[in-house]
Amino acid sequence: MVKLHVIFVVVLLPFLASLRAEELGKMWGTAEEEAKYYPIVNIPIPKGLPMRPGSFEVLPDGRLAVGTRKGDIYFIKGAFDTRPDPSYHLFATGQDEIFGLSWKDGVMTTTQFGELTKISDVDGDDVADRYDTLTNNWGYAEGHEFAFGSKHDSDGNIWVALGLSASYHSRNIFRGWAVKVTPDGKMIPVCSGLRSPGGVAANAEGAMFTIESQGPWNGSCSLKHLKPGGFLGHPASYNWYPFVPEMDTPSVTPNTASRFQVEKKRVKELVPPVIRFPYIKMGRSISGFQLNQTKGKFGPFEDQLFLGDYTLSLIMRATTEQINGVWQGACYPFREGLSTGIMNVEFSPKGQLIAGGFTTTRQWPVRGTEPFAIQRIDWNGKVPFEIKEINIRKKGFLLNFTMPVDKVIASKPDVYSINTYTHIYHGAYGSPEVDQTSIKVIRAVPSADGMSVMLHLDKIIEGHIHDFDLNTMKSNKGESLLHTKAYYTVNEIPHK
Questions:
Q1: C-alpha R_g of the chain
Q2: Number of neighbouring beta carbons within 10 Å of residue 487
Q3: How far apart are CA 231 and CA 223, in angstroms?
Q4: Each residue's pLDDT tens digit, 153-207
């Protein structure tokens, strides 16, 4: 028995560890360099406190509110201090997997599995004593039927994305839909076709989006526009259209083993993913996200979305633009090396990015080894040389940088490697990258200040991810890019 145990430890454990690492995939390998610009600060959690963060909110008095998987809400004082020595206060308990927090007019609104709840402190003792159901007009019966909620929008609504039953079916009403809930508790179905959504948030223009996980009818994780009346790709939720009389059921269902670009011409309600994240290269289980409007306190990425990933324990960023009335955009590496599975993020008043989450026993692999954590990403004032944003043009792309490029190098077409691919749109789980092409750069024209380069291409492939690699680009000071990769999803090519 002892010999068998020794064999298991010496032989099998290293094998299992290597298998797990291979399953998670190699990452960017830039954590050490990223720390020179964006150090990670741990926010201590008291020993014995089972803090499994699922959502965050900043209170008017500067405390950080945390909603947990176990259904508690804690208020944390000191989380934003340079050297945090925080104190934790239990505000509310008894909820069910809180994946949305929003404070407005002295009341906390929580999004949980079965309902949207308003929680109030009536007597002013900093402990919740009133719980009001704002709405519970969606079905809930089992553990995969997550609900993720937004902050209040400009009209006071909360937007909620509802996961399918058992990840594959819609057995309970409005599972696989996004809804919005008005301040007086009216639930309005918005769009169908979700599978297993994560966070919900707005971009700088106020359009609402959710993150979708890879799976059936989803070749990779993606950012999806919650377009009113739209169908977002997974047909399991078609069965609830009879309960939305003002919305027509899509006249046809999508063909399997097709392409999104083909099917959106058949199914007029079909809304293409705004950004598709190449699997493992850019996320595996993307989670909560927030818009950076810190007015420069978080560096050169104002009005960009910052997204967590549960499995790979990292943060990405994304930019969006509307072309021919359709949202699309690009994603970029940002920061790896966090301690646990990231469930949500939040910006502090000081411009720091709070990230937190946990690991589970549900056989979902996680790169970070801590069972739960709250961490903070600070900007130390140094600007990294990065691809800041990519914008599409009729004949190519405009690449914007955080620092001036070396214009001699940047004007050489062979500096830019651009490959494209798409995914199979089908009911099977996920998809390989298919229909690969290579794009030729005909001409590269740096701007006078060197902050951008216009790439003129031989073609742009509608419906494809355009995979950029700029590993030989240099700044005008001879620096290499911190991250050389970026990925732009082309749903539409500009008419002009």
A1: 23
A2: 22
A3: 14
A4: 999 999 999 999 998 999 999 999 999 999 999 999 999 999 999 999 999 999 9
What is the distance in angstroms between the CA of the first residue and the CA of the last residue of the chain? 74
Chain segment 239-256, per-residue pLDDT in tens: 999 999 999 999 889 999
Q: What whole-number distance in Å separates Cα of residue 62 and Cα of residue 376?
A: 15
At 1 the pLDDT is 36
Phi and psi at residue 242, in whole multiples of 5°? -60, -20
Q: With contact defined as beta carbons under 8 Å apart, do 369 and 465 qualify?
A: no
Span 269-322, pLDDT tens digits: 999 999 999 999 999 999 999 999 999 999 999 999 999 999 999 999 999 999
- Residue 19 identity (one-letter amino acid): L
CA nearest to 493, candidates 411, 393, 419, 407: 393
Which backbone phi and psi does 260 adopt, to 5 degrees?
-60, -40
The number of helix segments (H) and strand segments (E) in the chain equals 5, 32
Domains, the chain, ordered by start: 34-377 (2.120.10.30), 387-489 (2.60.40.1220)
How many CB atoms lie under 10 A from the CB of residue 60?
7
pLDDT: which is higher, 496 or 183: 183
- Three-state SS for 105? coil
DSSP 189-231: EEEB--SSEEEEEE-TT--EEEEE-SBBTBSSEEEEE--TT-B
Sign of CA dihedral 388, 198, 233, 226: negative
Instruction: Name the 3-class secondary structure at 318.
Output: strand
Cα dist. 304→182, 246, 298, 317, 404 in Å? 27, 34, 11, 7, 20
Query: Using CA atoms in the order 89, 369, 276, 438, what is the torsion angle rounded to 10 degrees?
Result: 150
Given a contact cutoff of 8 angstroms between Cβ atoms, the answer to whether 167 and 155 are in contact is no
Q: What is the mean pLDDT of residues 65-89?
A: 97
Record the tokens describing residue 438, joined without a space.
């290579």
